[in-house]
Amino acid sequence: MNDIKEKLHGFSVNEFQQDLINWFLAEKRDLPWRKDQDPYKVWVSEIMLQQTRVDTVIPYFNSFITKFPTIEALADADEEEVLKAWEGLGYYSRVRNLQAAVREVKEVYGGVVPNNPEELGKLKGVGPYTKGAILSIAYNIPEPAVDGNVMRVISRILSIWEDIAKPKARKLFEEAIYELIDKEDPSSFNQGLMELGALICTPTSPSCLLCPVREHCSAFVEGVQAELPIKSKKKKPKPLQMAAVVLYDNEGNLYIHKRPSTGLLANLWEHPNVEVTQSKSKTYREQLTEYLESEYEAKVNLSELIGTVEHVFSHLIWNISVYSGEVKNKPKETLKRITKQELEQHAFPVSHQKITKMWGEH
DNA sequence: AAGTCGGGGAC
DNA sequence: GTCCCAGACTT
């Protein structure tokens, strides 16, 4: 039985708001995106924080804002430079969508981030959570910002046993937040819920004895805080066998490839590589040689195996056999010739940074 | 509703 | 090894 208003009978909304907000104002972490309420900086931080921990984001946020301090600066930047600033953060479509949205704000909204749900929610990469976060934190508008923290905290506070992994669960929690949110300080309320989830109401072994709202917490009263939230497991990533080569010529140049503009690691650079299959008559090394010839018209003598790289994604695992090789001719233009120094101007996925490092050390 | 899309830290 | 993180988009 998950009728929110039913659960709120006897629940002191005002006291809950004050206990949460007072705790947040006293204990909140000093984070770089909390220095002001600039909607652009709030926006950038919220995109970076999607599925990414605070400690990981901090250095990226600081350097990103230094490089692109304003909407104008980000709108006018080259995508290559923007991707480089995101290198290693993952989910790279986040920053490509962010730049597209920032360009729209510059052109359509005169450089002012919209302060209403309708226009804000239409921007690329701004979903239900980010929309609510920007409205509440930058503009102090009482809209829910339901992320993983909020679903965990509220599931315990109100004893909600819905599976939070299901898409429809978020709407239930938004409904709850509309009832609970402080209209005077929605910014501190929303951030307080997330801060509580990050510092106190953690996934495993929550620190209930330190919790500022434990007397409002249904799960604590019932002693089931460790059972909540309910979250179904996702399936395991699928392994994929790859072969890659660090390709060079006799003048010290390297040859790299730009990935397609859609899909996995879109628009990032990589060492030439191909998926290979086992138990055929051909070795990985032979399959890679034939691929380089057919795809890039590159005549290459590959080295023996330098080593292997394993890289785990959310939904797949790359097992990469790494080779090096000297090109004997001029390959197709789809391979870009660069010097070793120019490597650092290109954004590579971490898996291919591992390959570069392995080659440098072998 | 389920799959795609990164990477790293905590346990 | 496992889980999960200040989620959004596509199909």
TrEMBL record:
Cofactor requirements of the protein? [4Fe-4S] cluster
Task: Look up keyword Chaperone and say if it applies.
Answer: no
One Pfam family matching this protein = NUDIX_4
Alphabetized, the UniProt keywords read: 4Fe-4S, DNA damage, DNA repair, Glycosidase, Hydrolase, Iron, Iron-sulfur, Metal-binding
Cofactor binding mode and count: Binds 1 [4Fe-4S] cluster.
Organism in which the protein naturally occurs? Metabacillus niabensis
Name of this chain's protein: Adenine DNA glycosylase
PANTHER family (UniProt xref): ADENINE DNA GLYCOSYLASE
> SMART domains, per this entry?
ENDO3c (SM00478), FES (SM00525)
Q: Report the family membership.
A: Belongs to the Nth/MutY family.
Quote the catalytic activity from the record. Hydrolyzes free adenine bases from 7,8-dihydro-8-oxoguanine:adenine mismatched double-stranded DNA, leaving an apurinic site
Q: What is its EC number?
A: 3.2.2.31
Q: Relate the protein's function as given in its record.
A: Adenine glycosylase active on G-A mispairs.
* Record domain HhH-GPD: where: 48-199
The GO terms describing molecular function are: hydrolase activity, acting on glycosyl bonds
